[in-house]
Amino acid sequence: MHLNRKEFLSLSGRAAAGAALGAWGLLLPEAAFAKEVLDSPEVRKVHEIIMRSKADHIRKVQDDLKQPSVSSWNMGILEMAERMLAHFKAIDCKETAIVKTDGLPGVWAWYDVGAPKTVSIYMMYDTQPWDEKRWSSPPLEARLVKMDPFQQVVMARGAINDKGPNRMFLNALEAIIEAHGRLPVNIMFTCDGEEEQGSPHFHQVLEPYADRLRRANAHLSTGLQQDPEGNIQMGLGGKGILYLEIEAHGARWGRGPQKRPIHSSRKAILDSPVWRLIEALKTLYDPAADKILVPGYYDAIRPPNAEEKELMGVLTSRFKGRLFGSERENVKAWMNGWSEAEAAWHLTFDTTLNIDGLWSGYTGPGSATILPEKAAVKIDSRLVPDQEIAVQKRLILDHLNAKGFGDLDVRQHGGGDEWSQTSVKQPVVQAVLSVYKKYGIEPQIWPRRAGSSPEGQYTRGLGLPAARGGIGHGGRAHSDDEYLVIEGNGKVADFVKAEQAMVDTLYAYAHWPETRGAAGA
Amino acid sequence: MHLNRKEFLSLSGRAAAGAALGAWGLLLPEAAFAKEVLDSPEVRKVHEIIMRSKADHIRKVQDDLKQPSVSSWNMGILEMAERMLAHFKAIDCKETAIVKTDGLPGVWAWYDVGAPKTVSIYMMYDTQPWDEKRWSSPPLEARLVKMDPFQQVVMARGAINDKGPNRMFLNALEAIIEAHGRLPVNIMFTCDGEEEQGSPHFHQVLEPYADRLRRANAHLSTGLQQDPEGNIQMGLGGKGILYLEIEAHGARWGRGPQKRPIHSSRKAILDSPVWRLIEALKTLYDPAADKILVPGYYDAIRPPNAEEKELMGVLTSRFKGRLFGSERENVKAWMNGWSEAEAAWHLTFDTTLNIDGLWSGYTGPGSATILPEKAAVKIDSRLVPDQEIAVQKRLILDHLNAKGFGDLDVRQHGGGDEWSQTSVKQPVVQAVLSVYKKYGIEPQIWPRRAGSSPEGQYTRGLGLPAARGGIGHGGRAHSDDEYLVIEGNGKVADFVKAEQAMVDTLYAYAHWPETRGAAGA
Questions:
Q1: A429: alpha, beta or left, given left = phi > 0 and alpha = psi -120 to 50?
Q2: Disulfide engineering: A163 pairs with which of A158, A365, B266, B425, CB 3.0-4.6 Å?
Q3: ipTM of the prediction greater than 0.85, yes or no
């Protein structure tokens, strides 16, 4: 089903005439065309294969989950990388490689059948560690168990984050190949074995393939996006993040205790690095006014553009009262008494200066009388377009120097993630939306997520539009009893439907008429 | 050797005529009389008994050290209390009692032979716990070992803090009784089984005996005061201490995360209890100016009196360049560039506001992105005459309320110790100084220690003058390989001499002519 341009125009004309597809105000007319594709016999044939391969597909997920791959323990990473390589060979990738880095290796694979479009796919293949005694089912056994409110889940470390969904996507690809001999798109896979470490070397995985990756048409993430109620939040980008640790130490300062804590009575005659850190922090941020005091910190921020404003309008009107889900039970009031809509706006467009951790001296029960020789803080700043990590970091350093705090030790944790942004009009986004539409799911579409991810390496680093989409559900990532839903609760898609939707997304995108980047990034 | 007033006047006349004893500028003429007493056959006889009882005395120290008494583990406390009771019965105390409290019990004992003077003695009989694998000799075996630079020490938990010195004092008392059938003073013993917990219930030990304790003439501590070089620092009192823990919590504030940390991206729309705590702290103290900003915080402070100024003059001239010993290696410069003498002055007379500990959120390695729901700080304030704990605490609370921080949780740790002060002219102080003089040791005499102790319960609570004195050495209190010196290094007194000096102190005080309190407290 490789439609030509003429056939497409015929279909999209029908879409423009239709009303239902435009209901969210965000679907382009071409979505009508996607609907035709998704209802096509070609796609239905793949769906049938997935349905009858269910037992085999579940077993393949379990097999991957039984292979440990804990980056922080350096346990099973190489074996898991080899498994990924085997998976990519099994679908006839024309290139596969273990990619060495200064840390644990990544994996590269290129599926190329000369299709008109090429999709970039990211996979992480490491997991968090675990504390087995806290699990109700052993984290490496990947048992199928009942777990309220779901009829059946597979329980294992990596079940949802991300080894389960990765293997489901490969299952979906194998079903397509079984049905039609080839995929409707070319795919470039780049895989990270250190995601749980903050992907410190992932740029070294991308770098050798950057020229090829730049020629891809879009970057796609196909994880399972439904929460337990079946709802989906979709962000068309993310904020950047600068993460700093700042330490005041008597030895660098030349004042206060120099080597170790001293008896607290000495506060009468010695300066305190703890009070000094507090003094420095108060020059950075005024909490009462919610104002970052670093000169120039807001200068690079561009105002929300027309599309972003339109997206916020749709979001806050269609999801009024439902924008913030379960997190509301941990919140009594938003800052400055903001309404839900105002909070959504500030969450999307504001930069931040947050304290993640703060410590000095004795923090145990009861009392200890010491004047500590050092104090430290971890802060993170979320960055919005067009704030850049290096620039904002420099502003903070210059400010601390100007205020006389040049002796503070300021270290950046990781390279940070730059902000990322893709237009809702991008075909890869529209393809995802079309699939949600097919399954009757209206997602919350936020101009960007308030959080951060390495997506910017693909969007801003390689120039690809990016979208994240998928139905189905799993949970307890990073915690005990991590799970992936096999049979749902009537609200979330089950395992089979989630794989089928992955097929849909590939087909919707493969056949979406596009000139890459024409709709603006 | 109970001299009458006439005999004393004769002796003290001789002292006034002598020059040597006045060398420090702080010994009263009566010290000449003490010298006679300390050279007397009566005292020499006791010294001889101590010398020939050495092996037995060491064994008795070892026996007490082999009995564990760890208050934090509630291990052996009752057994140790019973041992103390047996010790007091062995010297024919007329009253002995285990004193129940809301916590672990104390011990009371009253030795009364109708002597003209009564001394109050405090003993703690609990110890810190231990980590046995870190010890070079098992902490409960109390072995005699070589430990550089000392020829022989007894190594055990409690060796110096305070079970070793306690038993040495009892050894000294037994030697006196063996020599002369009775002690030259009456003694009221009050013993604490929770000192290492901050003596939370010790007031309940004192309370039933307060009326009797008030009739004592002085409170005396006879621990081993020499540092490894043989030097002694003597403080004629101590500062008070107010210890507070202040917590900011979203739930009490009604802003920020309410129950648990939230994703750090939420800083864009949520207030931070961490920033709030910092905001509150900066209203308490200005580190650049070293100024406590709580209104009225300095109001109760009385200026140094004539005696205190004189003591500081003697101290800073006679110990120029030697006031701060080994702690100097942890200090590069005093606050405000103060000289040693200036630092000594401020250390003695200034109140403080110190941060002992500070914590919030994620404090481990690497990064975690959270907005914590709470933050806390431990602060201590050293109080000088006439600052009272309750008053200073109220000032801080009122200030925080006035500044809008009424939701902060402010808890006091322990009741705190009030400041304590005894005049250098008090006979019990002079008696201690006379003994130091006898052994050729000139102590650093500070008007008060910068630290705090429960001594105020005896001085201000019960109206007793107090002194702390003794020669000999032990170390590593609270650490592994705690020790008590048996045979020294040529600089510190050995075990026998330390016990002999305890005898001296009792005799010097017993025969010191006094009208209690006449010299002012």
A1: alpha
A2: A158
A3: yes
Segment holding A95, helix H or strand E = strand A95-99
> Is A402 in CB contact (< 8 Å) with chain B?
no
CA angle B13, B18, B22 (to 5 degrees): 105
| Terminal Cα distance for chain A, rounded | 28
Report yes or no: A365 at the B interface, CB cutoff 8 Å. no
Distance between CA atoms of residues B277 and B248, nearest Å? 6
- Taking an 8 Å cut-off on Cβ atoms, the answer to whether A267 and B354 are in contact is yes
CA–CA dist B230, B298 (Å, integer): 37
Enclosing H/E stretch for B106:
strand B106-111
Contact A282 B285 (CB under 8 A): no
Kind plus residue range of the DSSP H or E element containing A503 = helix A495-510
pLDDT in tens, B21-69: 344 668 888 888 888 999 999 999 999 999 999 999 999 999 999 999 9
Burial class (CB in 10 A: 0-12, 13-18, 19+), A320: exposed
* Cα B36 versus chain centre, distance: 30
Cα Rg, chain B, nearest whole Å = 25
Residue B185, classed as helix, strand or coil, is coil
pTM score of the predicted model: 0.88
| Contacts with A356 (C-beta within 8 Å, 6 or more apart), sequence order | A243, A378, A379, A380, B264, B361, B362, B367, B368, B369, B370, B371, B372
A344-382: pLDDT as tens digits: 999 999 999 999 999 999 999 888 889 999 999 999 999
Nearest CA to B123 out of B80, B73, B91 is that of B80
3-class DSSP state of B118: strand
Query: CA gyration radius for chain A?
Result: 25
3-class DSSP state of B156: coil
d(CA A153, CA B503) in angstroms, rounded, equals 80
Taking contacts as CB-CB distances below 8 angstroms, the residues of chain A near B327 are 262-263, 266
A427-438 and A31-38 are packed helices; what angle lies between their axes, rounded to 10 degrees? Answer: 60
CA angle A262, B374, A288 (to 5 degrees): 100
B347 reaches A (C-beta below 8 A)? yes
Spatial contact of B413 and B382, defined as CB atoms under 8 Å apart: no
CB A298, CB A392: distance < 8 Å = no
Could you tell me the sign of the dihedral formed by the alpha carbons of A409, A413, A418, A419, in that order?
Answer: negative
DSSP conformation letters of B437-455: HHTT---EEESSBSS--TT
Helix (H) or strand (E) holding A310: helix A306-318
Assigned token pair, B100: 């129940």
